[in-house]
Amino acid sequence: MGSETQARSRSYVGRHWRGQLSLARSWWFGALVYFSVSAIVVSSGVIEQEPIFAVGPLLLYVWFIVGIWRAAGKHRGLRVWAIVARALVIISFSLAAIYNVGLVLDWLIRWARLENFINPAILIKMKPTVLYLIYAAVLLGGKPPWRH
Fold first, then answer.
1. pLDDT tens digits, residue range 20-66?
2. Within 13 Å, how many C-alpha atoms sit on residue 34's CB side?
3. Which of 60, 106, 141, 143 is the most exposed, having the fewest neighbouring CB atoms within 10 Å of its CB?
4. Would the CA dihedral through 41, 44, 46, 47 be positive or negative?
């Protein structure tokens, strides 16, 4: 049991996740891993063809920000770095959430257009913001206005 715990603690992935690495190492090496893998996946174009492949970079992103958050909580150096790291995690997560909601809406709109699912009677009952997004997306060829 002791050797299993030791083996687990040697894993970079596990130590990052648990916040056992220094804040600097979590930030820089985690960013290198996350952005390298994400760049390869995104540049391959596979996510546009099959949105399910976005799950890998999404899980990697969660691993990245959780490790930074936890490392910031254990940081023993200048407290300002822990505060800055956590503030950047919050900003990054907020922007990623907004962007991914846009991607999901884009995918749903494309699916709805392909299935001829958009019914004018249903659109009339929707909130104006949602109606505008769907209307603009249909007029702009399936892309929401914020992606032009």
1. 999 999 999 888 888 888 888 778 877 766 767 777 788 888 899 99
2. 20
3. 141
4. positive
